[in-house]
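Listing 4. Sequential folding, example run.
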Amino acid sequence: MVNPFLTRRQLLRVGFSGLGTLPLLANPLVIPEKVQAGSLNSSQTQNKKPGKARIKRVIYLHQFGGPSQFETFDMKPNAPAVIRGTFKPISTSIPGYPICEALPRIAKLVDKLTILRSIEHRMTNHNSAGYYSLTGFAPPTDDQRLRDSPDLFPAFGSIVDRFAPAQKGIPTFVSYPHIIADGSITPGQHASFLGKAHDPFFFQQDPNKSDFALPELQLPDNLSLNRLQSREEMLKMIDNQSESLQRSMIGRGLDQSFEKAVQMLTATEFKKAFDLSAEPESVRSRYGKTTYGQGCLLARRLAEVGAKFITVYFSRSIGGDLGGWDTHGFDSKPMDPILKNYLLPITDLSVSALLEDLMQRGMFDDTLVLWMGEFGRSPRINKLAGRDHWPRCFTAFMAGGGLKQGFVYGSSDRQGAFPDSNPIKIEDISATIYHLLGIDPQTEFQDKLGRPFPISKGNVIQDILV
């Protein structure tokens, strides 16, 4: 499937058939009207003096579909059966704080987590809530028909790329292996009005396949590095000669993207990160031989070589066979078998392996792991033996640098329906992420209409910080 953010024809016109996932534009002298309207010149942003970064990178494990808090980290064992469900609680490394019995490996690591039990918002549809969870900005409407547009805000990783980019040769923002969608593509997966130069390095190849590789990181046989550099010089010459292009926002985005492409093609360590066969079989098995498990392993490898914001999507779809966490009980499939046989075992194996691996490699203290979906599930089990969408109170967890460990923040009421203490907005989570990366959450940028906005409208969750 072709990346919807960039067509193969556009790449061929630049002359790089081997760079299918890189955010290059088409003809440098032809500026598509729609793209031009949705771009933002770097001079239109306002940088504030950054604080001291407490972490080096973020790994965002995005759980599309909406995980149930009741069957994971906010069980209600004393509630009526229609609320508590059938899964039993088990003890964890935090005395007196149980989690679901289907997460035994994670239970041993709870003393390393910061669990957020009182996240709330009002978006009940996957596309609108998904966009919110990927950008930290509430959509203009809670509408399943919400479509991608330059009016909407950029992904977390694109903002990080704009204000705290990684070292040259390494993409700041990497996302894979799915384009998430519910009917239409969920907005918030790319740079939007920040411009294509800040799009993620995105790919859809399955890291669990035996032939997993990215040909996009290899030069075509007929293209030498010297020829590549000559093309770069030619582009600069064209840019300098064209006053209109020089002033255009797209022109600058093109130049930055071209430069990034050249740097990545010569970045040996970045290319090596994709060679999962270099890992011992015991390590690969520990993560689990699934797309998600090997994706989590790849996230660790990308973090090691310098990527700063890595988004791993659990699934491309909200639910169903091999899908995400949308456990309504539709299609005559009650949620319990799906949770027991698929969603929870994969999560327990892969996430615990990632956390342990980061600790063993000395990366835990300067990495932030965020495990979160777009909302949670309803307190009452429905007539189809499932749970419905519930954004009014749900659970996520963070782990890693700058945070209190073994810390449970916020609580839900007795039925798990609403926050009982310390309500959290997704904006607060985005503010905390930027703060830990050394980016002031009040840093401003402008949308395509020139209106200024802070990169986060939330507040840093100070109580969870060390």
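-- end of first protein; second protein begins --
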Amino acid sequence: MERIDVKINPTQGSSYPILIGENLLDNPYEHIRKCTSANRFLIVTNDKVHSLYGNKLASDFSEFIILPDGEEYKSREILGTIIDKALKLKLERKDAIIAFGGGVIGDMAGFAAAIYQRGIDYIQLPTTLLAQVDSSVGGKVAVNHKLSKNVLGSFYQPKLVLADTNTLNTLDDRQFKTGLSEVLKYAFIEKSCKAEVDYHFFEFLETHRNEIFSKNHEILKKLIKICCLLKSSVVNKDEKEKGLRAILNFGHTYAHALEIVTDYRYFTHGEAVSIGMKIIFDLALNTGTISREYYNRSIKLLKDYNLVTDFNIKLDEELFYDAMKSDKKVSDGNINFVMPVSVKEVAMRNNIDKKHILSGI
């Protein structure tokens, strides 16, 4: 088992461990009870995860709420059903919520925990690659609005992230590659994460593709660990996205707009991110921000992992641009982009004209 300690405001109790390994769900409460004094647990999950792994968390001190799965269900209405369940169970402040699923479940369960009785403990048990490498770490919790993604939310840290790599065995190809989009994001931003160690993650992904797709658990554990180390390096320095943490949105400005204009139904989040990264690499090349050599190497990595980089649907450019303008990263009316500037390094840019912004769609 690998352990990473996220060290956010240690004096305020915001630090927590990330545990990564096989068979961790065989005794989940052994790990959970070391991180919370909760007496009862509301487990938020979806039907697929419940059918596969629900028996591992079933107990006489826990209750399940089973939600529909999909980004289109990350809404105020579904959030309300979690709160309703907590009220019916008469959960108290000393109780806790467990997010048991992918990124959608984690975001909604975490937000429910953040606002229920002004905050109760919650635990992240991520079961998808995307959630294990990214969304379960860092305390961003939210729901979507039809006009803006994740616009209703908070920063609220879990007490524990427990990532059992065995759950990745049951992911279909589409969901596995959805997670790989966020994995590749870390390769493209590694130098800017200001980690204490150079993990050579880009090179790691270039040389371990076959083991990753065959779901070699030792390689997956290393991959997840590196992503979590990079993200925790950023979050430890900038919990609430006042500066550095914005780099984690690489590819996401286009991705979020794409999700909004397609009503969160056409692409998975990871597919939208990989499309967004391809567009931002094109933009960087066309504006002279990066070299042709680095561009070719980066696009090759996206293609080697068979990620979605193109879409064959007609978009209304004005609606798309309006969606981008509703993004949380807009400042003083300017859209802020996380732009690649050199090998594995990114920087914020907000001086890009509308014509160039829309050239990629």
